[in-house]
Amino acid sequence: MKIKLDTKKVYLAMAEKGLTVTEIAREGGVSQQAVSNVLNGNRVGKMKVVPAICKALDFEAKDIVIIED
């Protein structure tokens, strides 16, 4: 099982809200590098990163997390 993020949806929401990776990280209490790694597809990252992104963009995890078999 592989877990990844729907980055297209995240980047679109970021553009609509005018938020940067740094602002998402600050609001969610995680590092900018952690958010950047997740959005670049390098890794899903620590479990704190997805909730930080969700909080900043008013998403639920089910809206942006993709689970592949």
Notes on the protein architecture:
The protein is globular. It has 69 residues and is mostly helical. The protein has helices at residues 7-17, 21-28, 32-39, 49-57, 61-64, and strands at residues 2-5, 65-68. It has one domain (2-68): Orthogonal Bundle (434 Repressor (Amino-terminal Domain)), CATH 1.10.260. Helix 2 packs across helix 3 (32-39) and helix 2 (21-28) crosses helix 4 (49-57). A two-stranded antiparallel sheet has the order 1-2. The protein starts with a strand and ends with a strand.
Give a brief rundown of this model.
The chain is mainly alpha-helical and 69 residues long.
List the main descriptive attributes of the protein structure presented here.
434 Repressor (Amino-terminal Domain), 5 helices, 12% strand, two-stranded antiparallel sheet, mainly alpha, 2 strands, 69 residues, 58% helix
Record the SSE blueprint.
Blueprint lengths: L1 E4 L1 H11 L3 H8 L3 H8 L9 H9 L3 H4 E4 L1
Antiparallel strand pairs: 1-2
Helix pairs in contact: 2-3, 2-4
CATH architecture: Orthogonal Bundle
Give the tally of structural domains: 1
SSE order:
EHHHHHE
Name of the CATH superfamily: lambda repressor-like DNA-binding domains
Number of strands: 2
Tally of helical segments: 5
Proportion of β residues? 5-15%
